[in-house]
Fold:
Amino acid sequence: MNIPSNLKYTKDHEWVKLEDNVVTVGITDFAQGELGDIVYVEVDNLYETLDSEAVFGTVEAVKTVSDLFMPVAGEIIEFNESLEQVPEKVNEDPYGEGWMIKIRVTDSRELDSLLNADNYKSLIGA
Structure:
């Protein structure tokens, strides 16, 4: 299982990468594996500011639908529109082409409360 050490993680299995006060967010390799074949990704709140842990969308797999949660508070400034046509990118490349949203962070100190790779591995028993 791939858990890159340069990312932060949430207990809800999202990963976060900070670049210039903007975070890129997706679901982890563990999460996509648990969900199975992903067939649809929906983000309802583009250009809206949401609180940390608010639902920003859903991911639909063959066997289930799961909510997606904001890892930090901020404004959703971009959605990976390629997922509308090729949602399986989340399964194939969860930390690259399968990213979901970009957020302009309200308070970057919130990132300090996220899990590092070792803590995330402990959470999932890896």
User: Anything to note?
Assistant: The domain at 8-108 is CATH 2.40.50.100 (OB fold (Dihydrolipoamide Acetyltransferase, E2P)). The radius of gyration is 13 Å. The longest strand covers residues 55-61. The first helix runs from residue 29 to 35.
